[in-house]
Amino acid sequence: MSEGQKDVVPEPKPPEQPAVEQSPENVPAPPGEVTAVGARTGMFGASGTPDTSGYGGLVAPIVFPGPAQRPYGGWFDEVADALEGHLGHVVIHRGELTLHVQRDQLLHVAQTLRDDPRLRFELCSGVSGVHYPDDAGRELHAVYHLLSMTHNRRVRVEVSVPDGDAHIPSLVGIYPTTDWHERETYDMFGIVFDGHPALTRILMPDDWPGHPQRKDYPLGGIPVEYKGGTIPPPDQRRSYN
Amino acid sequence: MATDQDMYAGSSDTSEGRVFTVTGQDWDQIVEGLAEEADERVVVNMGPQHPSTHGVLRLILELEGETVTEARCGIGYLHTGIEKNMEYRSWVQGTTFVTRMDYLSPFFNEATYCLGVERLLDIEDQIPEKASVMRVLLMELNRISSHLVAIATGGMEIGALTVMTIGFRERELVLDLFELITGLRMNHAFIRPGGVAQDLPPGALDEIRGFIALMKKRLPEYAALCNANPIFKARLEGVGHLELDGVLALGITGPVLRSTGYGWDLRKTEPYCGYEDYDFDVQTWDTADSYGRFRIRLNEMWESLKIVEQAADRLAGLEGAPVMVADKKIAWPSQLAIGSDGMGNSLDHIRHIMGESMEGLIHHFKLVTEGFRVPPGQAYVPIESPRGELGAHIVSDGGTRPFRVHYRDPSFTNLQGTSVMSEGGMVADVIVAIASIDPVMGGVDR
């Protein structure tokens, strides 16, 4: 590094601690533990062009709804009671119940949710993967939506695993419908569902490299020329995020 | 090359065994070729092809004579990465992508997406009544058009071409209504987070009432053509049989679930968009076969017609009411109008933002370029699409773009039933079984 470059103002970086802890009086923290995954900088989130608003140094943590405290209210407590000791934290947001479960507890939790007469979640609506690249140690999430037709209730079960060890036990034995859904999540995120009868790609060609829905997989695209102007591909256009 | 030779047909030896390519009237080659090894299994690859409007599906069938011993689906031929693309567009632009997933039920794709975004925005209570009624109206019209295609293409696949032609004839009437209301026959992007894009155009209610009256005359034609038709019944009855336990294990919903006699319909059990205010019945059948699913679709069109009628009556009393949420930080500002040179920006809106309201201009600029922000969290608001439970799992990180949107498409899940529905049956019944699932590959592959 040359001497001249030392004077350059560095890019604003997310602080070591979430800003919530640095200045708790400024940001109303949701109840319970704050789950911050990454931070957003600047006033408008624009990148690549200078932010002349004077707020370019703002750093705001991305805070997902935190764990709820007992009592949860209504039937949410019944579910939590039946699964006592097998749950991670429980999030209630906008009236939807999310149970975070360790992967070694998943089979037990799913079996109980399906078979316990108090719960009876007969229908699994499938698996949805989410990639949080900034959520260190739990980058890949598998989200199961379950429906109890007996009691007309819905619950979301979320399992998170580190990127380097993306293994989750398969639910095909309990909910056979997850067969294709797990194949899709494997195809798109690279999560390996141990015990799946035939975990192969389903939407992408068999020899496709990479897992397209991961955040580190580029969107792709080419610039398009139109009437003398050139429009860059969507992931390279100016964006406000 | 001799004209009696088909350059695309023939046989070759591979390490996996003998491979025959069959293009038409040349099955006798297979019979001759297999004469010496007739006891061995035959694996038939059907497709990938485009069987009418279902989309591109590949079937791998293992046959013993004419009996299917194993059936597997190959999918992914229509995968276009819609979910990935949405992560690079604003929340409102997302509707233009989801509407293209299951192209036979675009309004349902839009509705479940918008309901999820509205839940994350916490504006579910603020959606104007007229917007909800219009959503219901469009969804039920869409259910009619989707069921018409299901019956029409299902009929065509077993050779009932009259069913196909009259099915598409009526579907065209529904698409005309869509064109009148939204400007487009398909891919509308009309239902938006916060409401719908435009108010009803003048004269739309009269057109809808005319359509209802016409359909009441035409729907009995389907019943007269098919319900007691001995050939139709012989092809459908007992085919694609799947009982309730199998249906639930495979996560199958919609008409296939209701054909087992279980009246599960999200419009009744988890009402959204105000479905609890409409008078309609859930249709079931107890035969758990393709014929039952056909009858359910036919009956559901009657029920949808009832809902459309009630929605049209309510809309008549809501003239001039807002169709978009009042919050100017969310409501899409721009309006369209018909000018002398066709559809374009509403001149009234341009006058408003350029001449009258600085704040209006700022809102327009911010929403169109940057879009609104959705608080972090996740939501899943399933709805009853013509094919079953359709739901969008929406994750927001607080930005102006979806962090992740995953569609739980009923076609994708229901297509898993192909194996159990067709194994042990005749090869010709595979087509009937799949048609009774009514998969739309645009939704399966996304």
Explain what this protein looks like in three dimensions.
The complex is a heterodimer of chains A (241) and B (446). Chain A has helices spanning 19-22, 76-82, 106-115, 178-189, and strands at residues 35-41, 59-64, 90-93, 96-100, 123-131, 140-148, 153-161, 167-169, 192-194, 224-226, 229-231. With 241 residues, chain A is an alpha+beta fold. Chain A has two domains: 7-64, no CATH class; 76-194, 2-Layer Sandwich (Beta Polymerase, domain 2). Chain A has a five-stranded mixed sheet with strand order 3-4-7-6-5. Chain A has a two-stranded antiparallel ribbon with strand order 1-2. In chain A, a hairpin with a 4-residue loop joins β6 (140-148) and β7. The radius of gyration of chain A is 22 Å and the shape is globular. Chain B is an alpha+beta fold and 446 residues long. Chain B is built from 18 helices and 13 strands. Chain B has helices at 27-33, 82-86, 93-98, 106-121, 129-157, 161-182, 204-227, 230-236, 244-249, 255-258, 266-269, 290-316, 347-356, 358-370, 410-414, 418-422, 427-437, 441-445, and strands at residues 10-14, 17-21, 42-49, 57-64, 67-74, 191-192, 195-196, 336-339, 342-345, 377-380, 383-385, 388-396, 404-408. In chain B, a hairpin with a 2-residue loop joins β4 and β5. The mean pLDDT of chain B is 87. Chains A and B meet through β1, β2, β5, β6 and α4 of A and α2, β10, β12 and β13 of B.
What keyword list fits this structure?
heterodimer; A: 241 residues; alpha+beta; Beta Polymerase, domain 2; five-stranded mixed β-sheet; two-stranded antiparallel ribbon; disordered N terminus; B: 446 residues; 3 domains; 13 strands
